[in-house]
Amino acid sequence: MINQNFISQCKIIFGHENVLTDKAELLTYSYDATAGIPREIPSLVVFPQNTKQIQELIFLARQTKTPIYPRGAGTCLSGGPVPLSKGVVVSFQKMNKIVEIDADNLTATVQPGVIIADLNTAVAKYGLIYPPDPGSMATATIGGSVAENSGGLRGLKYGVTKHYIMGMEVVMPTGEIFRFGGKTVKNVTAYDFTHLFVGSEGTLGIITEIICKLIPSPKYHRVLIAFFDKLENAGKTVTDIIRNHVIPATLEIMDKVTIQTVENYAKIGLPTDVEALLLIEVDGMGKDSVEWEAKTCLKIIQQNNGKPKIAETDAEKDSLWTARRAALPALAQVKPATILEDATVPRTFLVDMLIAIQNIAKKYNLMIGTFGHAGDGNLHPTILVDPTDKDEMDRLHKAVDEIFEKALSLGGTLSGEHGIGVAKLKYLRSEIGRSGIDTIRRIKQALDPDNILNPGKLVPMED
């Protein structure tokens, strides 16, 4: 329980200026980007600047069984950092140093509060990139991205966060400081702790330092957009591109509802009578290979009755990407609340999932715009609702249930990149089964016996 003595101790540990207790300010830290989930205003927020401070906080919290909620930038879409009871939010805004860029070993060592876009700006000087690129990368932090195992537009070719984390420093729920992994390309010592903590959503330890893998930045890029009168033709184009051994850096899809909404919002000249569009970028180190990939994509689009356009200048490339970047803000303008989901299926079932979402929208009389990463089957059905309309909210919950049921029936998953948090907790058993639930509980109990780290997230504590 947090009392005045607890707050006083926190001010000693972090400094008065790094402890928030004002109720109006605390309200901000009771939210992330997820709509319609339970939340609680925290008792206080602390801003650590080093690992030792976090260790001392855990010692203090264990004595009183006080919940601790780690927080990055709050861009999470599953309720990951949202407090569910009175406790302490640990904000990493001030632990935002790039400790080292080791260009020879292709690594960067960073504190968890480093913004992903800032890291890429820093490593660009060496001709390198950190590939994971969540849509919120301009504000999202590395620590939050690691906790949620974020993906992004480049996931098809370059993978997701877990493929670029080589090691960490973590403060365990007992207060012990644990370092694992490193800069070596090969490391098979002991359990794979790195992959255990990536995607653990702050439930197993507090990440205080991260070793990131970097890669050379591709020199050449080609961007295409294609419009389709039938969803089936768009889906077949995606499959045919991969079948022809072209792996685009990005292969994005938008359905008719999203296209119409984006055009109404951004006025960028998109045709509003088509059923789908694909946005494709191929890249690489060799100009000839990139040109071959672009021409192959162009040929496949035409074979599937698509209408393609290739960007010839940087201005045209930027114009094409404006359509994709505008998807969420455009949809968010339509109604007071935007429920952005993350259903993911094998790419060969992409069209089946899109059609199912359209049918669910009709069944429950809801407006759902779907866009996402077609190349890896990661779709974002975005449901637009008014939270004050009880009937509409009831229909929303039924629709979401059916969306995830359909995704799982197609061999998919509850989350391609947003995590489980609290928003998808009730669906978890449907994917991993009773044995999976028991296993995840045993891991949590073994590492956090007092259940003080981000309780109520990812790990179902009750049947």
Would you write up a description of this structure?
With 463 residues, the chain is α+β, with helices and mostly antiparallel strands. Among the domains are: 4-91, 2-Layer Sandwich (Uridine Diphospho-n-acetylenolpyruvylglucosamine Reductase, domain 2); 98-216, Uridine Diphospho-n-acetylenolpyruvylglucosamine Reductase, domain 3 (2-Layer Sandwich), CATH 3.30.465.10; 220-328, Alpha-Beta Plaits. It has 15 helices and 18 strands. It has helices at 4-14, 23-28, 51-64, 116-124, 142-148, 155-158, 193-197, 231-243, 256-266, 287-303, 314-325, 327-332, 350-363, 390-409, 428-447; strands at residues 19-20, 44-46, 68-71, 88-91, 98-102, 107-110, 128-129, 165-171, 177-181, 206-213, 215-216, 220-228, 250-255, 276-284, 307-310, 337-340, 367-373, 378-385. Strands 15-12-14-13-17-18-16 form a seven-stranded antiparallel sheet, with helices on both faces. β8 (165-171) and β9 (177-181) form a beta hairpin. The radius of gyration is 23 Å and the shape is globular. The chain starts with a helix and ends in a 16-residue tail after the last helix. The model has no long low-confidence stretch (mean pLDDT 95).
